[in-house]
Amino acid sequence: MATFQELGITGSYIKALKDLDIKTPTRIQEQAIPALLDESGDFIGQGQTGTGKTAAFGLPILNLIEPDEKYIQAIILCPTRELGKQIAKQLFRFTKYGKKIFTEAVYGGEKIDKQIDRLKRPTHIIVATPGRLKDLMERKDIDISKVRYVILDEADEMLKMGFKEEVFNILRGIENRQRTWLFSATFPSGVNQIIERFMDPNATRINVKKDDVVNENIEHQFVVCEPNEKFLTLREFLKAMKKQKGIIFTRTKASANEVHLRLQESGVDSEVIHGDLDQKERDKAMRAFKNRGSQIMVATDLSARGIDIKNLAFVAHYELPDQSDYYTHRSGRTARGGARGISIAFVSYNEIKALRDYERVLNIEFRQLKG
User: Fold this and answer.
1) How far is the first Cα of the chain from the last one, in angstroms, to the nearest whole number?
2) Of 7, 245, 250, 351, which one has the greatest count of Cβ atoms within 10 A?
């Protein structure tokens, strides 16, 4: 396996990676970085949460930016504000020892005037959600005339969230871009339309095999229980995990609120995050989970995008997701940076078939625990 240096990453970034305890390239990094460092051509890559996509495109884009040129050179589009903030933070960490490259995140849920003020400072890279970037472009409050690189991260998720028109308009509006990089876990018709309309037909493609998509350091477990016993079974699992941190996933906002309330009533220090919370509430919950010792975050699928916390011991699926790729996104929150982690599902007997489908599609194996 190649080292980051052998892939073409320069010294200052190598030093920053060591600080972040990132030692060995993941499969997607190993394939993507050399192709993206090449000064020509578009790029299409398959990548799931937890496979190291941010470094796969982040390190090359930082290498390609001209720090002395004080204008926006790259735009990274992503589906949620949490993911946008996380990408911007990671890029900042990567530049710790090199020339200063300034990244700004813009997203809905924060006053647009504040973001416009921040954009008046020298900025090289914008990380944006599609709706907010479209607003800034329409108001002519962002100068995209010299943008050379556009990166679409989690393209399928942006389209699932209803941003197809915004993404298309943004790509039409950035006329001077030289390269477009697209990362997507799946390739539904909308993503293929982006590729056909806006990307070079000779774009470099990499396809991480399905058996490489799920992190091999995750142990997949399940417990069979009746619906009325599920919360008590969850509590027993949390007791066994002692005070280790983890995320509990539900399908709906109502379920997330219910689980959070019952955990608090049981004396478990927990937070909750979902789409009905405003930005201030979401930020408060994230700070409490990251910095103030809360053991558990209860979350819905989309709201958890961008949660990247070291040493999360487990992910618990209180309710199974609707799709197998959501299972991968969820479980990828644990076992980061070479650590090991647990992904445990609490299911009824008639849901076992869904787990068998995950095993077949994702090439993983579940181990049953006694309830």
Assistant:
1) 41
2) 250
Counting every residue written for the chain, the total comes to 371
Distance CA(43)–CA(204), nearest Å, equals 5
Cα 46 from Cα 284, distance rounded (Å): 33
List all residues 6 or more positions away from 163 whose beta carbon is below 8 Å from its beta carbon: 79, 129, 130, 131
Per-residue pLDDT tens over the stretch 216-251: 889 999 999 999 999 999 999 999 999 899 999 999
337: left (phi over 0), alpha (psi -120 to 50) or beta: left
pTM value is 0.76
Residue whose pair of structure tokens reads 């900042």 in the numeric block: 92
